[in-house]
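Researcher: Please translate sequence to structure tokens.
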Amino acid sequence: MAVKTNVNKNGNQYYRITRTIGHKADGKPIKKEFYGTSKSDAEGKANEYMSKLKNGLVNNFEYAIVADLMRTWLFDFLHNSSKIKPSTFQRYEGIYRNYIKDSKIAGIKMHLITPIHIQSFYNDLSKEGCSYCKINTLNTILKVFFNWCIDNGYILKNPCLKVNIKGNKSDVIKNEFKTVEILTEEEIKTIKKYIAGSKYELLILLDIATGLRQGELLALDWDNIDLEKKQLKVEKSVKEVYVYDDENTKHIETIFQTPKTLTSFRTVAIPETLIEKLKETKNKQGLLFYDEENKPLKAKNVSYQWDKILKKCNIPHKKFHSIRHTYASMLLKNGVDIQTVAELMGHSAISITQIYLHSSTSQKQKAVNKLDNLFKT
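Model: Translation complete:
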């Protein structure tokens, strides 16, 4: 009985079938051909391969390219994973979409990627005006991705480990110093007078008194407040993020998540005056700050109201985050040691707290004058 075949390859007759083994970044299918001496033989090989692929026993080394595999990593492994915050996934997806998906390294086969490819890619981004900070963030996320590729057998070494990013880390620190905005004592007095009795009075005063991040402040509920001990606990943060239903559809949700870092879990003392204001609050259940639907206030709405308050008070524009800067700066100015301030702020390192260390010219002069005795004859 004649064996049915459908293709001639290198002078031999085979039966060939094609299966979809994945999808590219643009959604197009990745095909793989299987050859056998008969239809059943080819199908047997295809079924065996697909079974191993499903169970992670084989990798598509010859097909895997950077953009496709990063997409797989994002949407098949990280998406909705309990190991990653939705806000972090949003940042990773943005990096993939804006910098990787259609980039010069997107189509490079994974097992051929080298530090030279990555270095050239970063150099081009730098020439196009991409900052050190952005490229450094990109490199950090790519390191995580390539480590996953190593764990899954696609590559042996991480190509991001030996690259140089043009620019200087000190530029980032200088930029942070530039963006630190501090409210003066006179400005605080003006704001306090204007907001007295208003909907946002307690919210703003409590932030001035505790220096919480905006998301931490808006996530506070009465279970976090201890009026007897005069303190509050930071245990969560609230944020509006894109939640991805799949690769092509997403929607905005307000989510509660853990604070920024482990050191962000902290207890912060509340000044006596604010304790009295909190005691005056009638409803002491649920969220401290909520909208008409008893949902957390949206950060953008709070920032909008803050901008209006500054305008009404004839105070130059400063971001809402300037309240946090002011809190740290005032503590340091009044002699609180930097370690304590770092703990109150929830900083992971004292070097971050040093950004808020502002001393007046008179304070500096007074400090230096203490050395006068060394120069007296």
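Researcher: Any highlights?
Model: DSSP finds 15 helices and eight strands in the chain.
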